[in-house]
């Protein structure tokens, strides 16, 4: 018998449905949504602000800060910075809030010790 055969029962599809309906899986989905939806909305607003400023506030975006560095260039580079910051925040959040619960669910499904 393989490791994947040692689950909750003999029907893998009904096992998956039981796991999905369980309170721990529901909590895992809730925790994921609590982070992903607000951060996605904030990033989308930040990106749309950049696009709108680039299109409609060309005078502001072409303002030179020093040398050939403009406000638009700084805003564009900050898009990359914000992506890396969001990635770091997500990894930290997942390590603290999502992974322990996901590991618990996985161990219960596989019937292994933690």
Helical content class: over 70%
What value does the Rg take, in angstroms? 23 Å
Could you list the spans in which at least 5 consecutive residues all have pLDDT below 50?
A: none
If helices are DSSP runs of H or I spanning 4 or more residues, what is the number of helices? 4
Residue-averaged pLDDT: 88
Our estimate of the beta-strand percent is under 5%
Order of helices and strands: HHHEEH
Query: How would you characterize the largest beta sheet?
Result: 2 strands, antiparallel
Count every beta strand, where a strand is a DSSP E run of 2 or more residues: 2
Silhouette = elongated
Structural class by secondary-structure content: mainly alpha
**Ends apart, CA distance between termini:** 21 Å
Task: Please list the strands of the largest sheet in the order they lie side by side.
Answer: 1-2
List the helices and strands and how they pair.
Layout: H1 12-21, H2 23-56, H3 58-61, E1 64-66, E2 69-70, H4 71-110
Antiparallel strand pairs: 1-2
Helix pairs in contact: 2-4
Organism: Amycolatopsis oliviviridis
Protein name: Clumping factor B
Pfam families: DUF485
